[in-house]
Amino acid sequence: MRHPRVDVSALVGVRTRHPEAIAEAAARRARRPLLNENGRLMIVAADHPARGALGVGDRGLAMANRADLLGRLCLALSRPGVDGVLATADILDDLLLLGALENKVVMGSMNRGGLQGASFELDDRFTGHRPEDIERLGFDAGKLLLRVDYADPGSLTTLEAAARAIDAMAARRLPVFVEPFISRRTPEGRLSNDLSAEAVTRSLAIASGLGGSSAYTWLKVPVTENPDDMAHVMETSTLPAVLLGGEVGDDQEGAYEKWRGALRLPTVRGLVVGRSLLYPADGDVAAAVDTAVGLL
């Protein structure tokens, strides 16, 4: 199934002549509970571009075509069982104008300052949605990325900023999804996330304890290098969790198997997946989304 074509001229026309239409669309948007009757979540993620992460596989600028990305998102959001979307303000504003967020869970991406490949990548400042923005727009949750490098003193600043964001979300009774990693620089200077069982366990323990209340905190967790380790890793916290899909390359079936096993664990409540569903190797967005939904 081909994704719908998005009229960029129409979007730009509204943005230039009637920018308040975005807030108006947010105010009248039909909302739903975070969890539906089955207690599971299927969220499509598209917050990568704001961090300069535009690549999918060997296509370095795959996500750079905004009309194409919006069309893929509209198709994904139209599929049965897809609960909502995670994105930055520019993308969510477009989706509001397109009417694609009715009765969907809308998650605002909060920190995008750690640009991919930059010397300051680990100084992941909160340059996206603020808690007050998520509340004002009637969105349903926020998400923050928390990468901790034990060799980088700047990680302490990131930890503190994340804790204060969690406090601000809890004060508004808004869920916040924390995506933690233990990270380090390779000899070439590239940032790498450690997906060993020990590292993921430590990252979950650190994230769970941030802020003055964990009542509204969720964890967004990667599957470990060895998927069989996930049962022990997820014993680290009682906070509800969703699995981070990540980029899977050509091994889509292998990724589905990893997710299937982890989704059976008691604290895991769903999936948040982006590029692997929006840009599958075979190009069939609908089929990729439907298969992921079927895992739940």
Automatic annotation (TrEMBL):
<dbReference type="InterPro" id="IPR013785">
    <property type="entry name" value="Aldolase_TIM"/>
</dbReference>
<dbReference type="Pfam" id="PF22649">
    <property type="entry name" value="Cgl0159"/>
</dbReference>
<protein>
    <submittedName>
        <fullName>Deoxyribose-phosphate aldolase</fullName>
    </submittedName>
</protein>
<feature type="domain" description="Cgl0159-like">
    <location>
        <begin position="39"/>
        <end position="293"/>
    </location>
</feature>
<dbReference type="InterPro" id="IPR054574">
    <property type="entry name" value="Cgl0159_dom"/>
</dbReference>
